[in-house]
Structure formats: structure tokens, C-alpha cells
Amino acid sequence: MTIVAGKVALVTGAGAGIGRATALKFAQEGAKVVVSDVNVKGGEETTAMITKNGSEAIFVKADVSMAKDVENLILKTVQTFGRLDCACNNAGIEGKIAPLADQPDNNYDAIMGVNAKGTFLCLKAEISQMLKNDGGAIVNLASVAGLVGFAGLSPYVASKHAVNGLTKNAALEYGKQGIRVNSVCPGGIETRMLDSLAEQSTAGAQSAHQMMDPLHPIGHIGTPDEVAELIVWLCSERASFVTGANIPVDGGFVAQ
Known about the structure:
Helix content: 40-55%
Shape: globular
Oligomer: single chain
Largest sheet: 7 strands, parallel
Strand content: 5-15%
Structural class: alpha/beta
Number of strands: 7
Distance between the termini: 37 Å
Low-confidence stretches: none
């Protein structure tokens, strides 16, 4: 039995990677899906992959750091499908690797704008809508960098700690109104973002697998599909007693 059958699910940053895998998983599990990204090509490709398999989906371009874009995203969702039941706030950027004292101010501003403010704006709009339809479930994409520090990534680490804090607060504030909010904290995952970090760290001398596989006790990095499985489960009734959690999906990384 599909676990989110009949639900309406929104996924930001769904043009590639974890976002795309999550959008596809929602559709596979019976949801109608709103695919959102700043990357029109990637977002439309994800939408086409869903509709090709017979599920319902639309694409809405949105920059989550802009309140008007986020408000329009929720408006288009409700205009098309009538409600919002599930949301995955996945959109995020990694920025530049450098020690804190060498970090450009605009790098910090850009990362916090998308990762932290973007999650905040999405939560505001999603919760406001979910209060109108008797609740819902939201999953924010944090990172193991929201649980521990990473040298060279201070703005990213700060942004993902902020995502985990927002998750806890939203869960506390809206639990009695039927809205559950959790975050997932991936370790190394096969994505463009991890490739970018590997390229910056090693100047191309090592691939993401070569750099990151040994750092995970399980022996390898993960796949977007493995993260998507947890996200969709958290949005289903099977996770009805789970809220306010920051859950690692990291092959044992933060257990070390």
C-alpha cells in the first residue's frame, strides 16, 4: 500500500539530487507533487519524470530566499491541488570552502539566505496553509553539518544548525495543531553539492567517493534515494509520533 496516497506534497530544490529523488518517491507512494526549483530545466525534467509514470505533478519556479516567490509557490500549490499536506524544504547551497576569517561576507549572506532564511520562509508559508487543512507534515533538509562542525564550512555549518533549531521550534509550536516538523541530516550523499565540495577541497585530485567513503563507518557515501525513503516516511502516518527530531542519515558518521 502506498504510504502518502491522496496527499499533496511540495518539494523545493527538486531539480536534482535529494530533492528530485524525494519528489519521485512521493509520486511513487501516491502523492500529487509540486516540484520547485530555481533551475527551470532541472525542475521541468523532474516533473516530466513523474507525469511520464502516470502521477500528477506541476513545476513552480521559486527562489526560497524571496518571500514573494515562496508565497506564490504555496498559492500555485493550492490553486492546482486544493491543499498542502506534506512539504520537504530541501533547497540549499554549499558556498565556498575557507577558514572563517577568510570567508567573504557575501558568501555567508548567500548561504544563510537560501539555507536558513529560505527554510524559515517556507515553514511560515507551509504552516499557515496547513493550519487551514487540519495539519500536515514537514521535513527540513539539514545535514550532519547541522550536528557537528566542519573546518572550512562555517557559513554552511551555521545555516544547517539554524535549520535544526527552526525544526525543533516549529515542532513545539504547532504539534497540538496537527503539524509535525522534523529534519533529516544527511552525511556524504552522491550529489552535485558533494562533487563541488570535493573539487574545492582537493582541486580535482580526488572524487567525492575517494574523499568521503573512508569517513563513513558503513564504508561508503549514500544515495539520494536512501535519504528520500526517510523523508517520505516521515511525512506519512507511519511516523505519526515523530516530531521535533533531527535525524542523521549518514552511515554512522556522527556516531564516531
